[in-house]
């Protein structure tokens, strides 16, 4: 993270939460500065360092460092969450579709997958429900990422005993699409017109029209070529997970905190700052990857915007198995023609 971006975050956090502001005590002496408190939080996030290992270099107590980290992640989510963790608006959707069309997948909005975060100090009463295939309590993050590693969707908090299908049924990824309030998408593949974008996913996801999965046993050069290309572009979200964990190792190792609210704020704040770093490191004049405006916050909608019949019809289109196979066959032909042109 560049110094200018770091100072921007420090100033925004200090303006949002007066606890970070420097004040005088009863003796008239100046207290801790915002830089000390925010640096303590950053060191815990960026080095996965325990609080008692930072007290000497930062001149802070262990309890103050933990409180700084809790308040810092909550402030980052409150100040920057609506802008840097949001659903794509119309301009973003059009830009994503145009970018992925040049890669051979018209209508693609990103790739989706799940990541597990190990919870070392999970409560014994909850350990059973949070323990899955990694044989230790974990918390699951479902994310959608684009080619530039921008994370558009994040759904965190499901116990590690669930698989990707269970998490998908609980997340709010397709709520706006089912409610009819998402951006309009129009594209053509192999002579067929489509009005819904899709996500690249691995084999465990359901056969829905909004997911494009690999072919289990591809026969023929066309299908084999499709499987190779689909697997290559599906790695966007895996790359995003890797960069997120390298920038903030606290989400890579075993977390030592106890309450779920703080863990949720830590993961969300790391994703928000990850997107902020991506935006800050883009070259000047890169119009192709400029995401302006607050867009639609990534929150589930509990207010129906249409009739029940319209909602059921849209949901049937989303979960259509026939639409899934039709789209995949069209993409097989399109990618083969796209490969021939190249």
How would you describe this protein?
The chain has 342 residues and is α/β, with parallel strands linked by helices. It folds into two domains: 3-83, no CATH class; 85-341, no CATH class. The protein contains twelve helices and nine strands. The protein has helices spanning 3-16, 34-47, 55-58, 62-84, 90-102, 127-130, 164-170, 175-179, 221-247, 260-280, 308-318, 321-341; strands at residues 86-87, 108-118, 138-145, 151-159, 187-189, 192-194, 198-200, 211-212, 296-297. The chain has a five-stranded mixed sheet, sandwiched between helices. Strands 1-9 form a two-stranded antiparallel sheet. The model is unreliable at 297-304 (pLDDT under 50).
Put the structure in a nutshell:
This protein has about 350 residues and is an alpha/beta fold. Helices cover about 50% and strands about 15% of the residues. It has twelve helices and nine strands.
Could you tell me the strand content as a percent range?
A: 5-15%
Number of strands: 9
Question: What is the number of domains?
Answer: 2
- Stretches where pLDDT falls below 50 for ≥5 residues? 297-304
Number of H/I helices: 12
Structural class: alpha/beta
Give the N-to-C terminal Cα separation: 38 Å
> What profile does the largest beta sheet have?
5 strands, mixed
Helical fraction: 40-55%
* Rounded average pLDDT: 87
As a whole number of angstroms, the C-alpha radius of gyration is: 22 Å
What is the ordering of alpha helices and beta strands? HHHHEHEHEEHHEEEEHHEHH
Shape: elongated
Please give the order of strands in the largest beta sheet. 4-3-2-7-8
